[in-house]
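Could you help me review a protein record that somebody else here produced? Here is the record exactly as it was handed to me:
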Amino acid sequence: MIRKWLAVALFTYSFQAVALQDIADLEASSSHYIKDDLFIFMHTGPSRNYRILGSIEAGTPITVLTQNNETEFTQITDNDGREGWVESKFISNTMSQAEQLPKIREQLAESQSALQASQSESARLRQQLNDARQQITQLSTENESQATAIVKLTSKVESANKDELVTWFTRGGLVAGGGILLGVLLTYFPKRRRRSSEWM
């Protein structure tokens, strides 16, 4: 029995510690909300003993005015303009799930749209890459063909130069041989005697 009471006491103490931690974070501003899955009452003063002004649904955005740490109540203004006091432990700095859901859906739609745009851009870039690779392959083939043609033309030019040199050497040899033969033949022709130029 004592263990059960001890466990309940520890649980209550830990819950109060967490609640006090949440209460300590509250500051006067309009960026606060009633926690989700709750239905609380608004009182005319900082205690449950004060008259109830009405109820506030979970997720309702509120404006924190002042905080009473002794009674753990916070003075607020709701979205209908009502001013009253609610328990501080039921106030959160986090936007309610009901208000987060449309924003999350909008962000999801934007993310999906951005993803589709990225996929389209990726497909376009892949197509450009394939086209560029095909062009590179085609240019490489043309380059190889041109290189082969240049090698053939170079070989032809070198062969033509060799043939021309042989032709010039042959012609030069013939001319030289003809000149030598002519010189030899001229030595065998008889020389004409000159007439004497004596006066009678």
Q: What stands out?
A: The beta strands are 32-34, 39-43, 52-57, 61-68, 73-78, 83-87, 91-92. The first helix runs from residue 2 to 24. The CA atoms of residues 37 and 163 lie 104 Å apart. The helical segments are 2-24, 97-188.
